[in-house]
Amino acid sequence: xxxxxxxxxxxxxxxxxxxxxxxxxxxxxxxxxxxxxxxxxxxxxxxxxxxxxxxxxxxxxxxxxxxxxxxxxxxxxxxxxxxxxxxxxxxxxxxxxxxxxxxxxxxxxxxxxxxxxxxxxxxxxxxxxxxxxxxxxxxxxxxxxxxxxxxxxxxxxxxxxxxxxxxxxxxxxxxxxxxxxxxxxxxxxxxxxxxxxxxxxxxxxxxxxxxxxxxxxxxxxxxxxxxx
Length: 228
Description:
This protein has one domain (7-222): 3-Layer(aba) Sandwich (Protein Transport Mog1p, Chain A). 22% of the residues lie in helices and 38% in strands. The chain is built from 4 helices and 11 strands, in the order βββββαβαβββαββα. The longest helix is centred in the C-terminal third of the chain and has 18 residues, at 205-222.
């Protein structure tokens, strides 16, 4: 295995569910004070269950963050809003000048990623006079016992002038998966009709999940370690 090949590890998300993600060594974690605490008091039931950064000496950074929220008010089709909002926030928080961005289609193939919904995105940016390769992925799944929705966002950036580091980002993101007893989205109930009036009622539980995912993605990207 070369120094640029990913090594896999599993990070606890919620009981019974882990995030399998590659890491590039040597790496160091972000200092505690570098990660701003996200205020979720106004989003009942939503909580951060995983937040971590790794950074290599060569300038590659890998961020991982997951949030959990009650899933009993999930409604079919809201996955597009959840992932679109999270992606929009991710775009705006990429450091430097964003040169290119492309989001993939939302896929539903638990056999590949473990999650019920997943979406990849990639782009290019220029920061501090150097070009950066940006890769990311959203994983959205549901637990049965706890009736939770889990949203994990992964983002990796590397100096584009270093092909090995750039391909390392691709391998890390493409091989990430949720591991555990995840199930299909819950069937919508009568309460889901309230979502049709989201414009008049800005605080349905489903909308809270969307907002929480966006807040966490924004905080993670804004406060990730910067390279010298």
